[in-house]
Amino acid sequence: MTSRRPRRAARATAAIAIIAALSATTGCAQIFDVFNGVQSTEIVTPTAQPDAKTPPEDLAFDSQFTRDGSVSLSSDVADDLEVRLDFWAADPKRTMEWTPQGEKTFGFAVNVYDHRVDEKAVLTDKRRVYISQISITSQTSQTSNQSSSPFQFSADPRTLVPTDTLRSDRGLLLNSFQGGLLVPETTIHQLPDDTYGITLQFAITVSVEGNANDDTSFQQQMVYQVLPIAIYPASADDAAE
User: d(Cα 222, Cα 181) in Å, to the nearest integer?
Assistant: First the structure.
């Protein structure tokens, strides 16, 4: 029986002889091509196949909300006039526990800030902003390359707050002493099992005062914000329940 060691030594000797013969007439690139050609691989180690429910690295879902547990999204509706959407995890508060099967409860608030005046200035010195409609749509990201819209929310903000909150035909007043719009709990229910992310799209209808204390200067506009949220595979214990 012939051992493998002499065979490997013979291969190495042959490879060195070929390289020596070519070195005088070829460049480095050709030498390495020939060297690679005479090498042989005797043992092939199979690579592990990714779990169908686990997104590949190039599909990692980038989400500031998931990293921090809350996020503030800002929109300028006029010069130095900002509408801010604050969004936070309510239950579970640990966003890495947001799985396709579990309930995912969040809260959000909409407020306005007029940076031309002091925050404590009286309302007549501020440019008023009213909100008359808010809607949220959704789109899933799935390892199967399918997509769905499992979560929807739409409301007149005047129906979501106490009746004594300042309001008019233009909507709910955001920059009053009572504060803006607060929705403490809303829930995203079950998602497709292979979901690794969901993107929420906010559409907010506001009426913006052009000059402080000037009822004739209001103009209506739409505010749009997009919020990506990472979704994690359920643990084995959760999947068994």
Answer: 16
Q: Are 53 and 143 in contact (CB under 8 A)?
A: yes
pLDDT in tens, 19-56: 444 444 444 444 334 334 433 333 333 333 344 444 44
For 195-225, b/e burial (b = at least 16 CB within 10 A) is bbbbbbebebbbbbbeebeeeeebeeeebeb
Residue 113 has a CB neighbour count (10 Å cut-off) of: 18
User: How far is the C-alpha of 11 from the C-alpha of 40, rounded, in Å?
Assistant: 9
Q: How large is the C-alpha radius of gyration of the chain?
A: 31
Helix, strand, or coil here: 23? helix
pTM as predicted: 0.74
Q: How far apart are CA 209 and CA 32, in angstroms?
A: 72
What is the DSSP code (8-state) at residue 19? Answer: H
Give, as one character, the DSSP assignment of residue 115. T
Contact yes or no for 147/140 (Cβ under 8 A) = yes
Residue 60 DSSP label:
-
Cβ count within 10 A of residue 19: 15
